[in-house]
Amino acid sequence: MINIQPISNIIGVLLILVGSLQLLCIPFGMLDEYRDINALLYSGFLTIGVGFLFWIYKFKSSASITKKEGYLIVALGWFFMSFFSALPYKFSSLEIGYADSIFESISGLTTTGATIFSDIESLPRALLTWRSLSQWIGGMGIIVLTVAIFPLLGIGGIELFVAEAPGPTSDKIHPRIQETAKRLWLIYVALTAFLFLILFALGMTGFDAINHALTTMATGGFSTKNNSIAYFTSPAIQYVILLFMFLAGTNYTVIYFGLRGKFKNVWGSEEFRVYLFFILALILSVGLIIHFNYAIPLEEAFRSAAFQIVSIITTTGYITADYTQWGVGITMLIFVLLFIGANAGSTSGGIKIIRHLVLFKNSLLEFKRLIHPRAMIRIKINKQLVDGKIITHVLVFLLLYLLLFVFSSITLCGLGIDFETALGASATSLGNVGPAIGKVGPVDNFGWFPPSVKYFLSFIMLLGRLELFTILILFTPYFWKRV
Amino acid sequence: MINIQPISNIIGVLLILVGSLQLLCIPFGMLDEYRDINALLYSGFLTIGVGFLFWIYKFKSSASITKKEGYLIVALGWFFMSFFSALPYKFSSLEIGYADSIFESISGLTTTGATIFSDIESLPRALLTWRSLSQWIGGMGIIVLTVAIFPLLGIGGIELFVAEAPGPTSDKIHPRIQETAKRLWLIYVALTAFLFLILFALGMTGFDAINHALTTMATGGFSTKNNSIAYFTSPAIQYVILLFMFLAGTNYTVIYFGLRGKFKNVWGSEEFRVYLFFILALILSVGLIIHFNYAIPLEEAFRSAAFQIVSIITTTGYITADYTQWGVGITMLIFVLLFIGANAGSTSGGIKIIRHLVLFKNSLLEFKRLIHPRAMIRIKINKQLVDGKIITHVLVFLLLYLLLFVFSSITLCGLGIDFETALGASATSLGNVGPAIGKVGPVDNFGWFPPSVKYFLSFIMLLGRLELFTILILFTPYFWKRV
Fold first, then answer.
1. Closest Cα in chain A to B471
2. In sequence order, what are the residues at sequence separation of 6 or more whose Cβ sits closer than 8 angstroms to the Cβ of residue A328?
3. Full-model pTM
4. Is any Cβ of chain B less than 8 angstroms from the Cβ of A437?
5. Is B171 exposed, middle or buried (0-12, 13-18, 19+ CB in 10 A)?
6. Which tens digits make up the pLDDT trace of B228-267?
7. What DSSP character marks residue B385?
8. CA–CA separation, A246 vs A232, rounded Å?
9. 387-406 in A: which are within 8 Å (CB) of B?
10. How far apart are CA A336 and CA B202, in angstroms?
11. Under a CB-based contact definition with an 8 Å cutoff, are residues A241 and A212 in contact?
């Protein structure tokens, strides 16, 4: 039996948080004579008010949460947050439609970073701050989901993290996991603050430094500049953001070990090693190709290649160069990179390295199984045997992911979008990346899509962000059957 | 230890067969004053000669075949057959390059049907006959592989056929399987002869009727006409070919039961039922769409939709209409259909319905597993439980398939092919279909590709035709390790 009360309570808390953070953006309005701060004021109080109604509903403090309630909290929580995060756009003087407001809101909360705005620099400062902050909240939400909620629901594969990660020990949320979540949040907040200071020291305005610190750590990619990071021509700024994108794509447990000096544990994470070497190999190849093919100076070629590759793999989506100008081979490569993702347990979206690792190792072993059909052959991650059920789960995830990608591409084509754009928009939305190829390339925006496409892609972004199963399971008969 | 002798013997027999069939095409030269029959004469005798040398090598009649030798027979057998099947093109007066000859030969033997010729009607009749016959040999080869060799090697999933299919009982080829193979060949030959008679009776010339009978039953798709089946405007001919394409995509065991009147067994095949209803649903949707959107008369709209859909799903590749003119939505649909394939145990290529069925059922169950993590939940096909190992094998196959598709697309883009064409050519080659989208659409040909692309796609066609594992396993260390 599903108990509505804890669901309602938690959604209430989430909305009060969202509303308060909207009010927190108002001071930034002083940068442009408080343009449109009414939008945030109304939206903030409305959201807090509705949140309070949810929170107060049959209030009882210590209700424990079952699995099905967990799914509903995640799905409905994200749904309500998306709706109320869209209000500031709708309430503003910018005359934005409903589809646009919802798209921008979900693109923010899911840390995707695709935008419907063509002239970002003309937006009110307070609203821009809310736009960046919504990504940061989304990132925070994903950390708690991955550490505390997904393991309870049996998805996301925390079992595959570094060996010392705290796993779920029962079907109830364990207090130790709450501790872990707090510790990881602290790292998230501290890294954001640290990045802000560096960017400010390197000459960014305080406003730009805050916004970019928020959206870098969320692997979100919303920028306050029309040209994204290309606006900041200082190589130092680009290198710093590059490094922090890489960090933001790293498993937070690995970062935690790194900060405590336990480098053996850092190196013990196979996923981290693959992440690092895969990126290095790509930078080397693409850097050399564009250096020789397009006569870009060596340092700039490698910086440019590294920035674009790390931005796409971590699903951040900042850009400093238009990679579609680097030939059809690299365009195709970038398209494929939309399907990679960084580490599990980070704020990055998409499939993520760990799943590719399981796929790769298991595929190799399938050949061994063909020659020795009777042998029990299982794969190891971090030197530990991986349970067959987890392998099946990962393979199913991968295939569902590709199926949804195909479904989304067909739908977009059916709605009249051209072939390449449909594939690009689907891949980038499902992977929560941001820029893509075709008519939604790095220098384009999503504003020209018809409302139907915007609503559809918003749904796809949510699906991807919540690891597919969380949303899809609500459409199965199993979920609604009484036990 | 790998024993070269049985491998050499079997390749010898295959080459003698190929050479003899090349000679058999010579009489068709009388239709155009024996143009270029020398090419077939030289090639035929050379192939028989080399085959004889292979066959005679350390001849010993009753050597049994191990697993590794089985893999080598399949891979090397197909390789040598491809090489010697290419000779007639190269020896002809048409001045065809090596890459073109190899491409056309492999496109034939793999029953793909992609062609490098732009003016097919101008080709010598004897050579055209060889072109069609090579597809028919390929189809015959696939039947024996699926029934007799793949089960021995543990791939292809004969376990998933209708319940009564004879499975492998030991690691040696069982005499009963040889019996089955013979019986299925008989059906293959009989259906081809039957189709020839009908096409002839409906007004095709004897030459056209033979050629189209050969390439229809092989699900190959080589035509003797530049406009493929669109040349034959008679609806009766189109309906007959449509029906036989559907039959050729059906599992031969199912056809066998159908011919013996055991319709309960036919209906008992879940794969067949899905195949039938999936096609009917697609015909209904696409037929209505093109009827209303493009004002095509109702009968013609449904005939046209049915023909293109059945042709693509069975991986035949004939066409009667340019589907890329039906809007971007249907173009995308056709692109996705390149990944479907018909029944296992037929001559069709690609992924095939049974694997999609396993994927679909297993994905649905994964949601059930999430809610009941401790329950043992397994899928059923044809009312029988499917072993976990088979499920993993199918999932690995699907992911490897998609991985190869991605690898092929990147490679083609790297070789300078545009995005849409690269995706289309990769999908159609791996799935052994023939036509695709982009610049290799239904009214285009593959002649304009540079030689590097032709060699590469030839390799991809072989990979797809031999169910990936057969070729890929040769690149693993496991295979070459002495036990």
1. A367
2. B413, B416, B417, B418, B419, B422
3. 0.88
4. yes
5. middle
6. 999 999 999 999 999 999 999 999 889 988 998 989 889 9
7. E
8. 19
9. 388-389, 391-393, 395-396, 398-400, 402-403, 406
10. 49
11. yes
Residues A229 and A322: beta-carbon distance below 8 Å? no
Residue B142 sits at φ, ψ, to 5 deg, of: -65, -35
- Mapped onto helix, strand or coil, the DSSP state of residue A446 is coil
Scanning the structure block, which residue is given the tokens 């919540």? A466
To the nearest 10 degrees (0 to 180), the angle between helices A451-465 and A388-414 is 170
What is the three-class DSSP state of A381?
strand
User: What is each CA distance from B34 to A446, B22, B24, in whole angstroms?
Assistant: 62, 14, 13
pLDDT 10s digits, B37-96: 999 999 999 999 999 999 887 656 555 777 888 889 899 999 999 999 999 999 999 999
B167 close contact with A: CB closer than 8 A: no
In b/e form, how buried is each residue of B219-254, taking b as 16+ CB within 10 angstroms? bbbbbbeeebbbebeeeebbebbbebbbbbbbbbbb
Looking at chain B, which residue has its C-alpha nearest residue A326?
B414
Q: Which DSSP string do the residues of A3-32 spell out, in sequence order? A: -HHHHHHHHHHHHHHHHHHHHHTGGGGGGG
**What pLDDT does residue A163 have?**
36
**DSSP codes of every residue in B136-202:** HHHHHHHHHIIIIIHHHHT-S-GGGS-TTSPPP-SSSPPHHHHHHHHHHHHHHHHHHHHHHHHHHHT
Q: Does B324 touch chain A (CB under 8 A)?
A: no
CA distance A136 to A192: 9
* Secondary structure (3-state) at B481: coil
Instruction: Mention every residue, 6+ apart, whose C-beta is less than 8 A from residue A244.
Output: A191, A195, A216, A217
Nearest alpha carbon to residue A155 among A355, A8, A432, A10: A355
> What are the DSSP calls for A328-368, one per residue?
HHHHHHHHHHTTT---TTSS--SS-HHHHHHHHHHHHHHHH
pLDDT of residue B475: 87
Dist CA A33 CA B328 (whole Å): 48
Closest CA to B229 of B446, B5, B443: B443
CA distance to B9, B10, B293, per residue, from B61 (Å): 9, 11, 64
Cα–Cα distances in Å, from A468 out to A405, B131, B200? 11, 47, 54
Q: Do B368 and A478 touch (CB under 8 A)?
A: yes
Residue in the structure block whose two tokens are 């190999």: A281
Q: How many CB atoms lie within 10 A of CB B65?
A: 18
Which residues on chain B are in Cβ contact (under 8 Å) with A395? 392, 395-396, 399
CB A219 within 8 A of CB A240: no
Q: Report the residue of chain A nearest B397, measured CA to CA.
A: A363
Torsion angles phi and psi, residue A385, rounded to 5: -60, 140
